[in-house]
Amino acid sequence: MASPSLFRSGQFWHFRFQIDGKRVQRSTHETDRQLARVIADQTYRQARLWARSSKEIPTLRELIDKWIEIHAPTASPAHLKVVETFGRLHLHGLADDLVDELTTDRVELARVEHLKTHAPVSANQWLKVLRLLCSWAARRGIIPAMPFHVRALKVQKKPRAILPIRLTQQWLAAIDERDASDDAVSTAVRLMLGLGLRESETITARWEWLDIERQTYTPGRTKGREADPIPVPEWLLDYLAPKRLTDGLMLVKPNGKPFGPGFTRTAMLAANKAVGAPHITAHRLRGTFATLLSESGVPVQSIQRALRHKNLMTTAAYLEVDMGTVSQGQRRVAERIGFAVQPRPNGAPVARNATHAAS
């Protein structure tokens, strides 16, 4: 909200502003500037609320409700939950602000409130959701443009956990041991590890989407609504074959109902502790799938198709850097340049200058 301008005329402070092209100017009948500012801002807000009745500019809370109503049939449950949680818990005093009153100052102050209880990376996600809502409002003509300009915070990126190859078999065995009476979690983690499925996609996975002859799986209900066939590795086919049905959900509770979000988390955390694995969750298991493909030489564009991402930058964010492969590459580069490599006393290789080697 652009504040009304104040100016002094005689002994009193006056204000002026414009609403829908109409200029408003009047006296506050106050000699104190701070009191005059309060009166001017109150008058301006009342004028905007009056204008709103004809223009129908919603408050942020109303915009969130409208967004959820319109996107409920098409958006993924996870996406809807993010926006719903934002509106329920994280408005930080912005709930009743008109959308076009979300100034840079107001948003920055709200972010400060968010940072009192959340990490900077969470504050960036908070800002991302607010931008999503306001961009949507601008595209629909509810507001003329994005009302604020706030940059994301710089966050030190930390390496995220992936499941080490050397621990994979032990980790799966720990999952199986915990899931002995019902192998739903065991099946779900293998679908995530072998196909890169999201946990939500394992919940909706169906047997008729598995083509044994072509060795492919075509997810029918995905976050981005893509349905490209995904190659199924032989080890996963061997695991699924004895369980295979003609149709229906792959994973169901004993009562026949589907599982809810987060149903694999407890078993994964227990398996992490049992074998000494890092903090592996459903999302990091998907990241493990992507990173292992990358380390095996699969082009990032192919990994993007396997993960069903619309944006290549999203895929790149899933890939963790393996400095071991960098070290191997450095060694090959040294050999091509002409540096001789001979073992160190402790067994590690040491490079000698090519000219010294020649002498």
- Give start-end ranges of low-pLDDT stretches: 351-359
- Discrete helix count: 15
Tally of DSSP β-strands: 8
Strand order of the largest sheet: 1-2-3
* H-E string: EEEHHHHHHHHEEEHHHHHHEEH
User: Any idea what the shape is?
Assistant: elongated
Please give the CATH class of the largest domain.
Answer: Mainly Alpha
User: What Rg do the Cα atoms give?
Assistant: 29 Å
Cα end-to-end separation: 76 Å
Characterise this structure.
- The chain is mainly alpha-helical.
- It has 15 helices and eight strands.
- The protein folds into four domains: about 5-55, no CATH class; about 60-140; about 165-320, hpI Integrase, Chain A; about 325-359, no CATH class.
- Helix content is about 50%, strand content about 10%.
- A three-stranded antiparallel β-sheet has the order 1-2-3, covered by helices on one side.
- The protein starts with a strand and ends with a helix.
Notable characteristics:
359 residues, mainly alpha, hpI Integrase, Chain A, 4 domains, 3-stranded antiparallel β-sheet, 8 strands, elongated, disordered C terminus
